[in-house]
Amino acid sequence: MATDLFLGTQGWAYKSWVGALYPAGTKSGDYLAEYAQHFRAIEIDSTFYGTPRPHSVEQWRDATPAHFRFTAKFPQIITHEKMLKDAEQETEQFLSTISLLGDKLGPLLLQFPYTFTPDQRETLARYLAALPTQFRYAVEVRQRGWLNDTFFALLKQHRVAYALSDYGSMPRRAPVTTDFAYIRLLGNRKDITDEQFDRVRLNRDADLDRWSDLIADLNEKGVIVWGFVNNHYQGHSPATVRALMERIAQ
């Protein structure tokens, strides 16, 4: 696996992974340490619901080996509730806390709702300009109207990645706006409605072929790739990550 390729799942705190990924009897407090024995990166999903306690972040850092990397979502109060307006305090608190991961911190994701529309471009521009430059960022939008030269130029200006996802009708290829790419395989929650994430339940082989080809192509061009899979994509995201790895290795 290339040293500039970071693949993993979205979250790790799933009871149904015990016996499927984690050994039988694994306690919840040991999930992350066990996860880090299998993959080298993870997207922290829980930060979307609020800035974590500093002690929790320090525990995550200390439970993982030196080569392990975390990415994290900005809290929804910033991206969904305030939609970047008057969110300076929440932003400072989040960045200060998540920085406790130290060298293990990868990009931070600004995931916006469908209601964050292209006419809010100036709001996004002001927010990105004010962000501390010691962190790296990715932006996920969910309306195709965003995708034009002006938007991509804004991301390039601030060295921010455009986050590719399998969301709705959003395209799976777009200009590379910085030295890394951020990819998210989300799936549809209507396809898997329970919380039993212990096995693959949906066949997405053709889809995985296309995504792995894209990841390999980007990597060969010298672009660092961060890619994360949700359980709803196939039913058991660790298996999906492994399937991607196998394809890319070939």
Task: Tell me what the structure shows.
- The structure is a single chain.
- The protein is an alpha/beta fold and 250 residues long.
- It has one domain: Protein of unknown function UPF0759 (TIM Barrel, Alpha-Beta Barrel).
- It has helices at residues 31-35, 54-62, 76-81, 88-98, 121-130, 149-157, 205-220, 231-234, 237-249; strands at residues 5-9, 41-44, 69-73, 105-111, 137-140, 161-165, 180-185, 224-229.
- It has an 8-stranded parallel beta sheet with strand order 1-8-7-6-5-4-3-2.
- α7 crosses α9 (237-249).
Chart the SSEs and their pairings:
Blueprint: E1 5-9, H1 31-35, E2 41-44, H2 54-62, E3 69-73, H3 76-81, H4 88-98, E4 105-111, H5 121-130, E5 137-140, H6 149-157, E6 161-165, E7 180-185, H7 205-220, E8 224-229, H8 231-234, H9 237-249
Parallel strand pairs: 1-8, 2-3, 3-4, 4-5, 5-6, 6-7, 7-8
Helix pairs in contact: 7-9
